Each structure stands twice: as C-alpha cells, then as structure tokens.
Hints:
Largest sheet: 7 strands, mixed
Number of helices: 14
Number of strands: 12
Oligomer: single chain
Radius of gyration: 21 Å
Helix content: 40-55%
Strand content: 5-15%
Structural class: alpha/beta
Distance between the termini: 58 Å
Amino acid sequence: MSETWNSRTKLVHGGTRRSQYNEVSEAIFLTQGFVYESAEQAEARFIETGPDEFIYARYGNPTVAMFEERIAALEGAEDAFATASGMAAVSGALTSVLKAGDHVVSAKALFGSCLYILENILTRFGVEVTFVDGTDLDQWRAAMRPDTKAVFFESMSNPTLEVIDIRSVAEIAHSAGALVIVDNVFSTPVFSRAIEQGADVVVYSATKHIDGQGRALGGVVLGTKDFIRGTLEPYMKHTGGSLSPFNAWVMLKGLETIDLRVNAQADNALQIAGALDGHAALERIIYPGLKGHAQNALVQTQLGGKGGTVLSLDLKGGKAAAFKFLNAMTIPVISNNLGDAKSIATHPATTTHQRLSDELKAELGITPGLVRFSVGLEDAGDLIADLTAALEASQA
C-alpha cells in the first residue's frame, strides 16, 4: 500500500493479503490454529512471530490482520487490534493500562456500558475515577492529579451529542503525564482524526459505521505499535476478546464503502435537522451540524464541518409523546444500534441509558422525551415527511 494514497483508495486496498489463488475479494481464513512445518518452527514462532506468521486465532489471523491494517491506515495509527465488540475494545483499552491505585479522569456523558466499566468494574479493582463535564476544560484541569494514569471520553457523546475538544483535553492530560483514550464512534473514522489531534488511543465499535449494515459485532483499538503490541495485545489474547475471522471479513467489506455511506448519512442528517428545527412538537433538536449547537465552531475544525450521522429530538410531552412518535414512524426502525444504512430510532432513557439514576439522566440531559435518531441512507425527503407526520402524531 502506498502512503500517498488518499483515504478512499486505502479503504478499498489497504492491508490486502492474497492467497496462492489471487482472489479479488479478501479470503476468510476460518481456522482456529495454524500448522508448523517442524517442531523447531513451532518453538521459534512461540518465541517471536514474524510478519504474516500466526499461532492461534485468539492471537491473530490473516483476515483479522487485513482489517487491522486497513483501519489503521484510515485512522493514521501505527497499529490496531481488532476485538469481539466495541465494549471489548473499551474494556481492553482501559483495563490493560490500569492497576490498583491508578486514577482516571472521564467525561460523565457516556454510553451506559462505558459508565458501568468505569463506575463498577475498575473501581472494584482499586482504580479511582473522577467524572467531569467533558466540555469544560477547567474541570479537566482541576481533576488532574500526579497519579492520573489516563483520561477517557467520547469525542461526541451518546446521546446528547456534546463535542469534546480532543486537542485541548489531550494537552491538559499530557501535561500531567496521562494517556488519552478516545471513544470516537459518533465522530466516525471518516470525519475525525483523533490521533492527529492528540489522542494516544482511539476506540471504535465496528458494529456501528464500520459495518454499517447491521450484520456483525466488532471493535477495534488503535494506537502506537508499542501500545498495541506491548500493552494491549498480551491482555486481549489472554482474556479472549479477539475478533472472529468472519466478522473481520464483514468489517473489511464495510470499510470499502464507509466514506461514501457516512458522508451521505451526514448530508441527510443536516437536511433533516434543518427541516425539523423549531417544530412545535419539539422542546429542542440536538445536532452538532446546526449553527445553534454549542460546539458547532469546534465541529468545523475537529470534524471538518460535518455534524455526524446522529441527531436527538426532545419531544414535548415526555415519555408518552416520545413513544407515540416512535410508534408512528413508518420508515425508521426502532432499535438500539446506530450508524446503519437503515434509519434507527431509540428512547435512551428506557433502553441504552436505562440503568442510570433519574438524577444522572437529568444532569446529562437525557430527558423522558429524548429520542436518539441515527440517520440512514434513505431519501432525505421521505424521512422528513415521515418524521414530520410522526411528530404531529406525538402531540395528538
């Protein structure tokens, strides 16, 4: 692969390995182990694996390696390790670097499972966690301590779509000697360059935009070769969170079209947000691409002006109105995934963030009337008409 290739070319050809048959589409190596030509070769491989040498599927696989190299090329990272799910990636990135007595600073606006890892799992093993308002740089500065080992945040929060200044938070963290771990799912690897902006480790749920068609679970952690192979890989291969070869192949196929899909979805999202902004049935509409969004200026510099593929609608009338709205839709489906070719809507307060206390939901802006809407590839006009009718039905 040429370093001079642009992103779309890398997404089609990056990391490709061909067998002796010279297949066009990447091969799926569905094997749990690999044969050695001799006992001496087996011994040597267990001491140190060379390029394109494999031992066991939990340690690595040719199809998985293709996916890792391709997503690393897109992200601008030295290396990547593919995981069984997005949460395996989050858990591995955090747990592999932390030990009892370490301190973590995290934004408090997080996906429910991420909060569970920070609040319930890490603290169980003696890691102290401080939560801050991710958009308030003064809170980040005040939270840093000599024992702060890492900071963690979603670059665009789920589901209230706050955009965190990666470069500024990274400067604060690095001045304290802390590792910067960024969950970049909502920003997508197409719009965001988190590593260029100061992140040390970037995490994705490949289940979302990378697959993009609701087919398979997967995740990936990206960073320096020293971190991926020296810190993360030993943890992941011994705890079993590796990606299956078949799912890696699905993700490879997803990467071929992610640039086209995500740009089209973001264009749809901007049209829909503009059309619904100010609707009488809404308390507010949240979309980072709208000029009225609190971090819209940051969107211009950090995301190249693209507001992402997700918007949130806060309906007047609370939960009852939100449920009427969801049930009145005819094109979008009700589910809890995002980044799909199909438009998907969910009610965070009763699904993805259900376990949070009412007080924390209120603090994070997850109101009873909030609906998270992941915009798909359908015609924008059809979606606007359908959502407008559903909004009217929500107030009946």
